Amino acid sequence: MGSSDTPAPADLLRQHGLQVTAQRIAVIRAVSACPHGTVEDVAEAVHNEIGAISRQSVYDSLGML
Q1: What class, spelled out in words, does domain 9-64 have in CATH?
Q2: Which of 1, 28, 41, 47 is most deeply buried (CB count within 10 A of its CB)?
């Protein structure tokens, strides 16, 4: 999230009272990079960034967003 107007993923989570986790940050980055991607697209991007995530965790994170 390169723009100075856009908060960093961790700051965005904190502003909404959510716990900052590597999975949530990776999901935010994946959705930012491909806003109309499927759950599988997001899971693959997150897997490439942090190594592992369950499909349920992707759904939970997307629901939280």
Answers
A1: mainly alpha
A2: 28
